[in-house]
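Hello again,

I reread your note about wanting to compare the complex against the isolated chains. To keep things tidy I'm splitting this into two emails, and this first one only covers the full assembly. Below are the input lines as submitted, including protein chains and any nucleic acid or small-molecule components. They are followed by the predicted structure of everything together. The single-chain runs will come separately.
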Amino acid sequence: MFQRIAFLGLGSMGAPMAANLLKAGFPLTVYNRTAAKAEPLRALGATMAATVTEAGAGANVVFTMLTDDAALLELTLGPGGLLSALPTGAVHVSCSTVGPGTTRQLAAAHAAHGSALVAAPVFGKPDAAAAGRLWVGAAGPAEARQTVMPLLEALGQGVREFGDDPGHASVAKLCGNFLLGAVIESLAEALTLAEKAGLDRVGFYEMLTSTIFDTPVYKSYGRLIATQHYQPVGAPPAIIRKDMNLLVQEAYAQAVPMPLANLIRDRLTATVALGEPDVDWASFAKRVSEDAGDFQ
Amino acid sequence: MFQRIAFLGLGSMGAPMAANLLKAGFPLTVYNRTAAKAEPLRALGATMAATVTEAGAGANVVFTMLTDDAALLELTLGPGGLLSALPTGAVHVSCSTVGPGTTRQLAAAHAAHGSALVAAPVFGKPDAAAAGRLWVGAAGPAEARQTVMPLLEALGQGVREFGDDPGHASVAKLCGNFLLGAVIESLAEALTLAEKAGLDRVGFYEMLTSTIFDTPVYKSYGRLIATQHYQPVGAPPAIIRKDMNLLVQEAYAQAVPMPLANLIRDRLTATVALGEPDVDWASFAKRVSEDAGDFQ
Amino acid sequence: MFQRIAFLGLGSMGAPMAANLLKAGFPLTVYNRTAAKAEPLRALGATMAATVTEAGAGANVVFTMLTDDAALLELTLGPGGLLSALPTGAVHVSCSTVGPGTTRQLAAAHAAHGSALVAAPVFGKPDAAAAGRLWVGAAGPAEARQTVMPLLEALGQGVREFGDDPGHASVAKLCGNFLLGAVIESLAEALTLAEKAGLDRVGFYEMLTSTIFDTPVYKSYGRLIATQHYQPVGAPPAIIRKDMNLLVQEAYAQAVPMPLANLIRDRLTATVALGEPDVDWASFAKRVSEDAGDFQ
Amino acid sequence: MFQRIAFLGLGSMGAPMAANLLKAGFPLTVYNRTAAKAEPLRALGATMAATVTEAGAGANVVFTMLTDDAALLELTLGPGGLLSALPTGAVHVSCSTVGPGTTRQLAAAHAAHGSALVAAPVFGKPDAAAAGRLWVGAAGPAEARQTVMPLLEALGQGVREFGDDPGHASVAKLCGNFLLGAVIESLAEALTLAEKAGLDRVGFYEMLTSTIFDTPVYKSYGRLIATQHYQPVGAPPAIIRKDMNLLVQEAYAQAVPMPLANLIRDRLTATVALGEPDVDWASFAKRVSEDAGDFQ
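Full-complex prediction:
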């Protein structure tokens, strides 16, 4: 059924996703700009491609998991790009978190080429990707979605579909990251107040996450915030800041005031301006502590 | 062990809490300013008290669940109040959501009287109270806490302790309501953007709460917001607005800037100013829709 | 010295600016997409141009005053555009409020063409333009700035220079509009609170603007807000909303959190979403009243 | 006409105000908790009072200029306080910036005593007080206002009246400080963005304040912000933070959402939490720079 499947972009998310496809028995040709990152997949049976063109040539399905809109557009539409290498009828599964405009631009290019785009952003951190616990949101032409569904199901614990417009999956993913940002901001404010009011910071976190917020999102981000130790890095501040700016621009386009989204975007901007790149993006919680006089 | 237990304040939260104590086999004398609300408890075996003094006289333990700081202070410290009726060694379990200053003022009055205050605010809506699914946060003198622990355990699914300072339990409860407000604001912004961007509002809610936010808080508040139907009323906007003002004042006292708390307080202020009292406080989510041009 | 000067864009700002140049004795060729708007200038001695190309052909200096970035880029760089019509050595004086990126893109195109761009945004409303009370901020290559200085001085009551980078003038103009937005937001909040607290809204405005805020900006915007009558239209909400989005994007590019800019942008977004186009942009002050329950 | 006038509270504002009354030819008895601050007024002809009671005894008019609500209430209503020393028919002119509730509480106490309260907060910094350039806002019973009008006129360059309710003058004063805070926040955001975008920070300040913002408020606060040198201290952060909290509480009481007031209050809270007391309150502008990564 899938004669040839390719996966391009083997960073902290892409590598475990590709591994899961291999473990599920799908043949996979992989490519990464920095080739060394592809090596661990060789042991799982992946075929190495030296160039984007080589990866895309003859592929029925090609996954991409890249850093941002510019990288995705360049790799797909640029000179020596993926699109020109794809055969008619191929499906491009774009898993990157990008703006809906970028997604729709790609979809139109694919339609003109005779191929199809399915936007399939994933919800979860690298550790969830490795554990097969990602959630996948998929949107794009119905037939193409149906084609790649077995592959999407191999990526995680379930697929949710958003219809034919692939831009909708991008909006959903940006909203998902925003909701996580709201969890971080609210926990940061609550734990900081509680601590300054005399409660035990970690103890209060444990109380909250063993009662009304007894759920993985609050536990995982909350632990980073409660302990003020922002490791390991699920995603760095600059990457999610980029996402929040895409969200704010979509909110502008749709005429939706989003004061909390603005706040989160600005927290991340301050975090980037302050220059701490090697921390999880939840580290913007430190801005709350600092505003309360705590520079520990 | 408990010769006489009283429960004062039988509103939407107090009534089911008192009922749970009765169902657990504890004898209970009940009082409510509007006596009719006490009637259903008679069938469960409660003794009716006609006045606060009658309720408190000879009680080892007395619960209060009242609307706000002023009501609690008046009932406890005012003329003909609870404190003067209590015997030495009694324990007052204060379940109301009030400011830490009020709680500490009460604790000092009890200490002078020879009785003790345990602050035991509860986390959960009326339906959770009825189902015995409340969480209880308790703080106060260790001996008094130990005394009332079997009673607190009968109120819900678990007790979390915050040490000797009863004010800490009040801070924890205010933070809990704030965190719920953050859930509401973030869902309102996300669902409004998603809807205006073309996604199905309810469908996106279902996607979110069946994946990364698959937890009761997001499901219950999210359903109100997704459907824009703010019934039944867990708590009305004016009550939680009062709580958020207490929180903001505690943040002022502790010198903690809390921009998200300010936002939520203001959303509730607008909701109260607009005059819709008979809705759940999650209805402040409508302000997000209105700012986006939707006055449906 | 100026053999041929052209002015393109004769809206509510451009028309009085062009008139001032004519009144100062400068010969002027004028162009507007809707030609009827150019007619009143004919009486002042202007030469009519039927196309952009005709306006630009042989011009030493050409002014543009257009709605937004897209209009400016299209008119200048599009097919049949201004740039291709200009002779080598010409100076393009761009008075529109646009993003610094757009300004720099134009400057680069001019440099390649052998002409020069001077960004010269103006500070003031249409009535100030008509009265010759605009302030002009100019930036661009020093020689080009010197060339057009007598013309800029004829536009208003003074010119302020921002150096060689024309993008700096665009940033300054966006900041100027932001500062006006802050005046509007702060007056709206203050007057609304004062009114609800029992003071006379207009009387308090008059007190403020006859004492510590006795200055034209506070008087003119304040009058609209105090009387809640947002006429005449200096600039409509959608136009300044566009400016505030450019500002917010520049703040993102420079990594400067600007919470007040976000607030103003969102106030304008709500105003546009609510659909009241034919009012001055200061009408976003009504959002403050509405949040306080006043829908008069 | 004025047999005996007293002035209590000789801080950075009170001292020059008292001096202006003396210079205008009014006899004055002065009192300050720290007596040394009263000494310079002796040379201008002031009579020294050793206690509050001594200052108030037999006074027709008594001015107070104190730090906050608590100080004013204690000095006036506390044991050995001003009220008990005042003769029937006396007028208390309260110049402090306090909440409208405090002002109304004092007015009621005076009415019961047979004296009257005129709230007369002043608008301007210590240097304006010294130069006789304050503005005075007066409210209270009409007869009492009329009585003290010549004295109020001696304090500055003009008096504005707010009617019979002295609380209205307090609201007006709080709004005035809020509007100044908005000037500071907006200039801080604009100058920080401009600087990071490449403009000269001080030069842009000079451009703004020589054109559309050519007015003392923008010039004086703007100079502190442009140069990032927050001296001299007009008022320290903690004092205006207290005012902004009074404003926010009045906004709560009147049900007026004021997001900009919240922002300014939080900026001041962060400034106090960071522990820089000996600077002008405009130093909260540094928070904007810090959020943009600048800790110079």
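For quick reference: Chain A has two domains: 5-164, 170-291.

B.
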